[in-house]
Amino acid sequence: MSNKWLVFSLALLGVFNSAHAKEFVVSYDGFYDRLKVIEKGNFEFARVNFYVVDIASLEPCEIAKGEIVTENTTSPLTYTQDAQLLLPYDKQLDKDKAVVVIEPKNPKHDCQLKFQIEAEHFSKDNLNKADIFQLHSEFEELLEDLSGFFVSKLMGFLLPDQKGIKIAFKTPMVFHDEQVKCDKHICTFEVGADWQGQTVAFFNNSDNIKIDKITPWIEK
């Protein structure tokens, strides 16, 4: 991994380690700042999501319970079985300097918080070059917006080189296109400018295609 990507990933992903195994506390403002980028942008597919993962394996850390706490209020934290945090975009929580308190199911589990850029509402019906080009462009814009003015405009060399998108499918895949490479169920799409406007689907019948996760394809 290159030094520039290491610097960028630490700045962007904002990993917070659990210093004491039982629970950890994270300021809500870090979430709010990233959610605000999505709210103010024009993103149909691109999102930034929040996960609690094991430091060593990056596998999900199961959550026993969680709360969003301010000086005067306490509300339950919503999360999934995969330890994704479903946080509200709430200006008042930001103003009230809320904190997110998370308790892992395993008190000996060493967990951390990870911010992940990925796609939502992008289905098998979007598997054409035009929609993939749009998603790639949204990922680029979101990466730049999240990195902030200082990095994106004045220190652009710190930004990673995004070549396209990466899709994890539920089953192994084969695409008959030289710009798409698959290793079993993981496929990378090297997006070119000529993909814009090409609405022909990669597959005539996509009934058996199931998408697991879509993320930017970063050249490290």
Give structural notes:
The protein is of the alpha+beta class and about 220 residues long. The chain folds into two domains: about 15-120, no CATH class; about 125-220, no CATH class. It is built from four helices and twelve strands. It has a four-stranded antiparallel beta sheet. A four-stranded antiparallel beta sheet has the order 2-7-4-5. Residues about 1-20 and about 150-155 have low confidence and may be disordered.
**Strand portion, in percent?**
25-35%
Query: What is the overall shape?
Result: globular
Could you say which structural class the secondary elements and strand pairing correspond to?
alpha+beta
Largest sheet: 4 strands, antiparallel
Summarize the helix and strand pattern as letters. HEEHEEEEHEEHEEEE
Helix content: 25-40%
How do the strands and helices of this protein lay out in sequence?
Blueprint: H1 3-13, E1 16-17, E2 24-27, H2 28-40, E3 46-54, E4 63-69, E5 74-76, E6 84-85, H3 91-95, E7 99-104, E8 111-119, H4 129-154, E9 161-169, E10 180-183, E11 186-190, E12 211-219
Antiparallel strand pairs: 1-8, 2-7, 3-6, 3-8, 4-5, 4-7, 9-11, 9-12, 10-11
